[in-house]
Amino acid sequence: MMIMKKLLIILLSLTIFSCSKEEVVKEEMSTVSGDQVSLTNLQIKNSGIETNTLNNLDIAHKIMLTGQIDVPPQGMASVSAPSGGYIRVSRFMPGNYVKKGQTLATLENPELVQLQQDYLLANSENGFTELLNFKEENKSKKFVTKGAYQLLMAVKNMGE
What is the distance between the terminal CA atoms of the chain, rounded to a whole angstrom? Predict the structure, then answer.
């Protein structure tokens, strides 16, 4: 009988203590990636963050702000080249292993395009004068066709 009384007292005390109305706040944990921030309702309330829906407004003045832009390593490169230009494609970052003959970057420069056009024009004019001299020397021989002569004249006129 004594054991029954002790057992009954233990069961009654457990039910009384388990029925208390104390709320336990459980924070929900979720997995987020490294570039996302997730706040609980309690954190939002404590920090004073307010949210609202976006409205279309006309902004008549400029807002000057200071800040810093951080670029990932693959988006920034420093290259020493004999001529200026823009790096259009960069395939490697500092510290990567490369093999002999691999293309590291593609450099574009509008001045180089103009330089190449000037070279081709000068080279075609030089070829044109050589062709005229050759034609004068060999008037009796029909080495130079009329089509080749017209093509060279068109190239010369295009350069002017």
Answer: 122
